[in-house]
Protein 1
Amino acid sequence: MAEKDDFPINFAEAVQQQSMFAVYGVPIKDASLGDFSRLVSPGLTRLAQIKAYAVGEFCLRLPKPVVMLVPGDGIPTSDPCARPKELKWSVLPADKTVAMSMSTGTFGDVLDDVATKGIDGGLTLENPRIQDGKACVDIHAWAKIEIFGAHVDFDQRIPVCIPLEGCQTVYDVGWANVQVCFRAPNQICAKLCIGKWGLSKCWEYCVPVHLVTAAAAKPCKCHSE
């Protein structure tokens, strides 16, 4: 007679196993959850210092441990992602938890780092000019948001011409947008804002513009009204 483990798993079990994360670390003794229990998914009952996580065969050792709410006491494991004496917790990536990253520095530096962790981006403005009665500029904008293995990113070059007043949104993908403004008497400004999964940040940059004569002007393939 075949053992139970010899039978194929069902579809729901296969989907759940593929969707699970494994986190590795050590539990923290005598830590009170306080009001954290109201903010997280049911079953997260213990604080632990997490030092690594795995998704399938992919393993990542964290550069700095993270204190995180986990489900229960954890289990000993011989997984290659774990170091000696580290325990393992299996979690669903969509479950809500609370995490605290250990950082040192001034209050200002630490708070700024926490607020923008997982975010990178910026923009540059090239060839600013007033051409055919409009303010024109070539924008290079890029951004990335990454958290717990999930990420979104873009890298775009956006030539744009706008009227000599007001602002226009010239790029929008839902989680990121670029707005361009003309500011009298001779400035053109671009502002990039991104936001997803509770993380957000903006960058703004201004440059002076100058008049381009007809002889020096190049054809402008750009956004315009």
Protein 2
Amino acid sequence: MIYCDVAVVQARELWSTKEEVHLRPGHHWLFEFGDAGDGTCFATLENGKKEFTLASRKWVDYKGTRFYHGERAMVIKRWLHRVDEDASGLTFKEWDPKEDADPEQPPVAMIANSSELRAADFKLKELLPPELEQAARGGMRTRGAGLRQLEGMGPARWRLEQDEDNDFRSRCE
């Protein structure tokens, strides 16, 4: 059983029309924190600081995201998207920019605004691909790490518990 440390941000827009099937009040996205190069997940700005210093009611567009005074740009290692085939919206896979991004648009910045952070420091359970799950139930005696190295089993998937999803949704507008 492998776990993934993730965090939740408020979703203000949809990635694509495919995401509409999962749209409900309190819509949110999951991600894994990245490293900004100094052991933190907060990007260092051009002025050498970690947070934006702006006048009242002023904002700045930083890599396609709006920031106000005192906010920080969180570096994202990877986004986790809900899988289309799970109508509950509780199963996730790593977002693949090559598959899902518009090649006509500039690359997606792997950042999020700290003001949108709703939860952190929780774990997702990794799901075994159906082929491996069946082998595991069939009595195959081997360590999970060795079993996961089989090729062609598809991308890793994670499951969010319903209670956690409800809690996160209640924290989102």
Protein 3
Amino acid sequence: MYVDVLSSAVGVLPSDLSGGALLDWTRSRRTDMHRVISTNTGPSFALLVAEVAFDRALLKLCEMHDIASDPANFLHPAEERARLETELTIKGIDLAEERPRFEDD
């Protein structure tokens, strides 16, 4: 079911997100997802929304950096997120970094 939800949401990113803006967007969505996970007090749909928001941004960022990714690979979302984040790290992109950028690279 998660793959279907993510597949439906992938194309729903603002079209002007690229470069530094896309990286900032992805980092923000990752922070939001981890905040929801750590508080774990809200309804389960809040976690689903946060995960989908991060994963669709992550997929777009990976596409921009020529990293093979596909919503169909999210049968085990945590594992696929870890794989993609590792691939980005190999390319020098640290999603855990919190500094605001807001400029295009």
Protein 4
Amino acid sequence: MTNHEGHIKLWDELARTGGNWKVKYNIFRKMFPEIRNSTCFACLQCAWDCEKCPIDWGQNNGRGLTCWDDGAPYQQWGDEKSKEKRQRLAAIIRDLPWRDK
């Protein structure tokens, strides 16, 4: 399984269930027991160097966003209380462009 395939599998499950925290409920560990010490396939791919993140999180005022920036879909998903909106945001995250570097 590639990191991109794992990313799609994880976020597809979160889009299906509307889960609100991939770590709190151990969704990542249940789905990927062979992978330790991570909850993000993009972070695994870029060795936690946000400048090299394979996901295109979008732009704000001409600069690239990271997952933690305000306005990024991941930040919105983490803050969202509505299950339906989390499902929608998880689907957006699942489908974001992935750059293999």
